[in-house]
Amino acid sequence: MNIHIPKNKLIVKIIFAFFIGLSVLLFLFWYINKYIYKSKATNPEITFSLSAPQTVSIGSEFKVLLEINGRLTGQDFYISYDPSTISYFKDWDTDPTHTGVAALDVGQYKAFFTAPPIIENLSMENDKRKLHMGLVSTGFTSSPPVHHITLTFKAIKTSDQTTIEIDTTKPYEFVGEAEGGMPIQFDLASSSKLSQQIETKSTGPTETPTTPIPTSTPIPTATPTLTVDPNATLTPTPTATPIPPTTTGVPPTNTPAQTTPGTGVTSNITFDIRTQGLTEAAKKVNEVPVRVVFLKDETVIDERIVSMSKNGDGSWTGTSKYVTLLTGTDYTLLIKGPKHLQKKICTNKPSESIGGQYSCTDGTIRIQAGDNRIDLKGVTLLAGDLPLQNGIVDAVDIAYIRSNLGKSDAEIVSRGDLNYDGIVDSQDYGMIINALSFKYDEEE
Length: 444
Fold this sequence. Notes:
By secondary structure, this protein is α+β, with helices and mostly antiparallel strands. The chain contains six helices and 21 strands. It has two domains: 45-201, Immunoglobulin-like; 231-240 and 260-435, Immunoglobulin-like. The strands form three sheets. Strands 2, 4, 7, 8, 10, 11, 12 and 14 form an eight-stranded mixed β-sheet that branches. A seven-stranded mixed β-sheet has the order 20-19-16-17-18-15-21, with no helix packed on it. Strands 1, 3, 5, 6, 9 and 13 form a six-stranded mixed β-sheet that branches.
């Protein structure tokens, strides 16, 4: 028996089936693109260029030029070469005060990176020499900045072709800041030139690299580019005796009067802090020492270590008794965690929309007699300045965490475990990379 289906119903069924099929295809397309194929361009890119002479005479020293275009605060990478044909400066000069790195400041090139570098280590791997470089910037003076660095090598054996290259099979990091000051990691642009072939000859002059390098600029070996003395922020020694309150709270007659007269009082001040790494995941610690400094017109009025106890919400709280602070007086606060960058605070309850971005100029913190509370939970104190603290997140800190990933030895954990979960891992590494764009302790 034949079943007759009305023509209009058949058309409806065909249209319905078509839309079902189309929906399935669209879903599959969305799913594949979202969960299977990942975009390669996840981070902004920097352009990296390596160049060197094409011909070098045996026994002659020559320069390898690194040119990097991007807002970098630090870079960590490996250079690979054949040690039977060429050698790096540290292969023949083992004096730890000498370096094969020169950070030049010539024309468009700016000496943003410290010389000598933070890391300059040599190792062997599969018959190749690996030069591990760690460089930290001193700041930005152009936009976009161009970093110009030279490395000193020497030809030691004849070869028709030897290669020097950036080894992308080894871990590498290029970190810095995006527009607006946000910390960020960079990818290498596909247009980057990461290798150079060199012919080493027994005679003949050494050619000039494709990108000119001023021959009058020596390799700096005595004075690093970075001149900041970060130790001053670790254990500051006041040059003047802290100002004690007088019995009447009035400054001596030979001292200019305060804008707002104050009275010396006894105050109990409770501090609430929220620091990167010190969260509810901090399983291995219940209390941490935090350095707290009160300033008045850039003069240290009181400096001490306050013990902070862990709260359930990831914040930490500590209370301390003060007798040197005056009422009616505006103070600035400096606060530094045990593995953190120091932060300058100007109000009793600061806040920020992005972690680490809070900044202020003039302190307006007021203290009253009795109980006081300074709520810093709205500001993130960035982790990364490892013990022994020097007031800066640098490649030494980065290298320590990176070289100890996965370790839980007590000594290593005490220094490199930023979130206090009992192990040095990728979470700690991610936090220190994030803090690298801010880098320095904030001062008064």
